[in-house]
Amino acid sequence: MADDINEDSILFWLERVVHWNTGDSSQVANEWKQMEELGRFLDSLRGVLQALGDVEHIFKCLPSVGQLLGRLCGNLIVLSQEKLYSSLMQCVLVFCNDNPQTPLEVKAKDWALAQLRSSVAFPSEKISTKILDMTGFTQMDLIETYIAEVAKSLSSALHQPLRRWDPASNCYIPQNTVPIKNIKQLLDMCLPLVGQAAMAPVIENILIHLSNAQYDDHLVQDFLKEVALQRAGTPSYTVQVALWLSYIPSLEQSVLQLVDRCTTGMHCPHQEMVKRINSTHLPQACAEHHQVYAVVTRMLSTLFIQSGCAGRLAILISTFNQCIHEAVITSKLDVRNSR
Q1: CB contact set of 24 (below 8 Å; sequence gap of 6+)
Q2: Best exposed site among 156, 177, 228, 303 by fewest CB in 10 Å?
Q3: Dihedral angle at the C-alpha atoms of 41, 47, 50, 51, nearest 10 degrees?
């Protein structure tokens, strides 16, 4: 595409940009579609500018290139897209000579730095407001989009293996976990957003990360306590187990709730008790995680002794053990079938 970079192509894009900057909301959809094409053009233009090298030679071959780049530096949609903005700035900084020798090079460097400063200093809230006005989106739409993008980025950062294969030692070695300082900042930021649907993947990844990394800090415990208290709806099995492994009081609460459901009120038939037990996912968690099994069995044994060996509790413990046994068998079958 570099062969197509000439004064005619510069004028073609200049006409488009002038039209964009003076257009109305009816033209925005088409403008967004052209951004990918513009990005490819700027990448090719950067290569041509670098090949031309000398500023005087650049302006001789492409007289309107400065006007095009300057107008792009004032375009709201270009400024709002990270990749496109980066391509634009790389073109602009070609004109920024470290040691300008001629008046034209000095002027070109001043111009390039001015474009950089003005684009960086452009108020982000003005970009957001203008784009809202142009597209018809509401402020809530924009906030939800921002939260979704932040959630996606944070989930990606947290979703990393905790160990890696080291060919030199021929074994797995631990990966560096996220520093506790960064975790604290993340928890402070995410705690008010626990109830946001878009943040659910982040909260899930935080819980899983904490259960594996085992940070010993009071702020982590406070966060887990709040998540347990504010937890809405039915969390996924993975999230529930991560919370149990990270915050034992949450596991203890789940056990007490199960005991209450199965031993108080009217007699609970066997099949109904099995259904209630399995609905908690506690048997599956006990089958897959020794830590969960140890806590649950110790609690049930203690409650049984303290109750004076109550008959209902004895039936619950017996049924619970059967459910664990079935969960172990199912887990082994799943492993064999996945091979």
Answers
A1: 134
A2: 156
A3: -120
Say how far apart CA 250 and CA 19 lie, in whole Å.
Answer: 59
CB 166 within 8 A of CB 201: no
Contact 199, 232 (CB under 8 A): no
> How many angstroms separate the CA atoms of 115 and 75, rounded?
12
**Dihedral sign, CA of 111, 112, 116, 117?**
negative
Side chain identity, residue 97:
N
Terminal-to-terminal C-alpha distance of the chain: 48
Burial of 254 from C-beta contacts in 10 A (0-12 / 13-18 / 19+): buried
Residue 205 has pLDDT above 60, yes or no: yes
Cα gap 18→51, rounded to integer Å: 27
Own/partner long-range contacts of 59-64 (Cβ < 8 Å, ≥24 apart): 59/104, 61/6, 61/7, 62/5, 62/6, 62/7, 62/10, 63/7, 64/7, 64/10, 64/11, 64/14
Task: Answer for the pair 323, 280: CB distance below 8 angstroms, yes or no.
Answer: no
Averaged confidence pLDDT in the chain: 77
* Residue with the two structure tokens 């199960």: 258
Structure tokens at 59: 């302006």
Cα torsion at 73, 77, 81, 84 (round to 10°)?
A: -50
The span from the CA of 225 to the CA of 249, in Å, is: 8
Nearest to 178 by CA among 151, 152, 159: 159
Q: Among candidates 128, 138, 122, which has minimal Cα distance to 89?
A: 122
The answer to whether residue 176 scores a pLDDT higher than 90 is no
Q: What is the pLDDT of residues 158-168, one digit of tens each?
A: 666 555 667 77
pLDDT higher at 152 or 284: 284
Helix (H, G, I), strand (E, B) or coil at 166: strand
| Euclidean distance between CA atoms 80 and 124, whole angstroms | 8
Q: Report angle CA 314, 251, 329 to the nearest 5 degrees.
A: 65
How far is it, in rounded angstroms, from Cα 43 to Cα 279? 56
Query: What is the pTM for the complete model shown?
Result: 0.48
Q: Which two tokens stand for residue 248?
A: 């034992």
pLDDT score at 233:
54
